[in-house]
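Readers of this paper often ask what the protein records in our data store actually look like. Nothing more is needed to write down the fold, since each code stands for a local backbone conformation. Below, we set out a record of this kind in full and without editing:
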Amino acid sequence: MGNKRIVVIGGSAAGPKAASRARRLDENAEITIIQKASDLSMASCGYPYFVGKFFDDRNQLLCSPAGVVRDSKFFLNAKNIRTYVNTEVTRINREQKIVEYKNLITSETSSLAYDKLIIATGAFPRKPPVPGIDLKGVTTLQSLADADYLRKISDEGVIKKAVVIGGGLIGIETCEALHLAGIEITLVELLPQLLTFLDKGMARLVEKYVQTKANVILRNGVSEFIGENGQLRAVKLQDGTEVPCELAVVATGVIPNSKLAKEAGLMIGELGGVVVDSYMQTSDEDIYAIGDCVEIPHLISKKSVHAPFGDLANLQGRVAGENAINGNTAEFKGTVQTGICKVFDYGVGSTGLSEQNAARHGFDNIITVVNASSDKPGFMNGLLLITKLIVDRSTQRILGAQVLGPGDVSKQLAIWAMAIQGKLTVDDMVNADLPYAPPYSLAIDHSIATAHIMQNKLNGLFNGISAEELKRKLKSNAPMFLLDVRNSNEYEASHLGIGEKLIPLGQLRGRLSELPEDKDTEIVTWCKISVRGYEAARVIMAHGYTNVKVLEGGVMGWPW
């Protein structure tokens, strides 16, 4: 038998990773990548940062860690992998085990035989089916050509107003990139919140912050792109509002590009992605599929999800490349959907299930807490972190975490992602042995402190109330006694203004007579981050009050 023939369709992230892994395991295999675009192995997650001028050399989006551009010459010389760029696969013939393709420059057609085929066709940008979508000035940020177009606009400095449609990861990152170019941004989102992987209260905190940088419009979609002489001049919203602009970036998500696979008779899932098993094998034993074109299991809910993340694409590529050579020995078992994005000077991310998704997937005994504190000590210029932790009350298993703020969000998310994948409980986390030194962490790391709050809540030592719940009670005029226990200087600088009384914690024991006489009255306490609020609650409860709650996250976690 001759050398194994491996063909990879798609040359962005997952495809080259699969091909490279296969080559490392078999020097003699005949490996070919067929890529529709002109470039290979693009760092597409870096596009917004190229547009935003975080770096200027475009080739850095195409370079290896050693700084060599990963073009056809590189793949041939360094890896002995043949590549066809500007070439589209038009058909997969499973019976004859060949792929048919067309050169998009010359229109020449040909075919290539395979023993193992790896499909890495990525995803399409989702576009609203509205008039004017083809006007000049309407674009996506999906391809390197899109990034080049927006970087040119950024460099020229002529355009003054832009609309970004979609409040997800790419939409938010695009806002920052254009904002840094001095462009006035209007961000439009059809849903009631930005970043739908967050629960509403956390998303509201992000919205509050983004509003300091851009005009944010929620619960409104696009009905028309209005042009003049073929050039965009405004975006018309569904409520009739016209937003003048010279540029519109559509960032409303992506759709799995599974057309080739579907036409070849491979199994396609309910979400439109190619169905694969843990070996990344499709319904055909000689064909694997990886990256943004597939559906994979969520490790907690066990439901299929579409998770178009660059890191997962590379991990899946490694698995498929190994299995194409060695047989099914490597596995990719699924995702907890850990994601993070840069929102101007904030980091924002989540891992595992949100509260609303946990409830949707049958976890009917959920408990949550919100913790606001620094990532490092104040004397080391610590920055704010706000974490929401989601736990299954019956098992104390950690189901999800959401983290935001100017502090080290990435570290916190990494801790929680591993805790979730390791099926850790709250009790496992309260004494976690994490690295500590003042330049990097508090003595009790923010994540461990979050676990402490949750443990206190589970054990009945802490009775928290979320910002959303307090807001609802205020709207219903529920009888409550609201108590801010910060000092007077803090209060004068900033306070909630919802009818609260100020009694500094140090004075509380001497001023208990100012609390309601009825000891069953609902009392809500807080401070900046509710550490003092918790101490105040313990003091008040020790004096016989039965319904004392702490505002989770304190003033810093209040999103209004």
